[in-house]
Amino acid sequence: MISIDLSLTRTFEASALAVYTAWTDSRLLKRWWGPDGFTCPLADMDVRVGGTSLVCMRAPAEWGGLDMFNTWTYGVVDPGRRLEFVLRFVDKERAVITPQSLGVPAGVPSEVPHLLTFTDVEEQRSILSITEVGYTSLQALEASKRGLEQTLDKLAKVLLP
């Protein structure tokens, strides 16, 4: 089976620590997580090595308003510099489910390792690099890439001064 990685790099008008904080602070994450039209009603964050956060992304009404839960289990937590976690598709009780049971395209794995690096390039400008590992189809990769790009667009707006 093939494995394709999704890699994106985005420049933000904010410090690396501010971008990192947006990924780890519940109040901030709830303001931007999810592609256009999606909301984040729950972000129960436990950001520490071995910790597991529970994040809910709610689809817009025209998509059925489905709540999609993920856990993020952390292997590396280096504030302002690096986050590594494994995203798993779960139900609201944290039981692991298949992404396809939520209507997610085939080719999206049940466990998606994530590597995020945060790099300051100027006083209030930084670069976020994200790698997601393990997609098995280009269609799934492209759908995930579009969703992640929209999500990062929303993050950029939250980070505006």
Characterization of this structure:
The protein has about 160 residues and is of the alpha+beta class. It has one domain (about 5-160): Alpha-D-Glucose-1,6-Bisphosphate, Chain A, domain 4 (2-Layer Sandwich), CATH 3.30.530.20. The chain has helices at about 15-25, 25-30, 140-160, and strands at about 5-10, 40-45, 50-60, 65-80, 80-90, 110-120, 125-135. A 7-stranded antiparallel beta sheet has the order 1-7-6-5-4-3-2. The protein is globular and about 45 Å long. The chain starts with a strand and ends with a helix.
Concise synopsis of the structure shown:
With 161 residues, the chain is an alpha+beta fold. Helix content is 24%, strand content 41%.
Chain-wise SSE layout:
Layout: E1 4-12, H1 16-24, H2 26-32, E2 39-44, E3 52-58, E4 67-78, E5 82-90, E6 111-122, E7 125-135, H3 138-159
Helix pairs in contact: 1-2, 2-3
User: Which residues form runs of ≥5 with pLDDT under 50?
Assistant: none
User: Largest beta sheet, briefly?
Assistant: 7 strands, antiparallel
Cα Rg: 15 Å
CATH domain class name: Alpha Beta
Which structural traits does this protein have?
single chain; 161 residues; alpha+beta; Alpha-D-Glucose-1,6-Bisphosphate, Chain A, domain 4; 7-stranded antiparallel beta sheet; 3 helices; 7 strands; globular
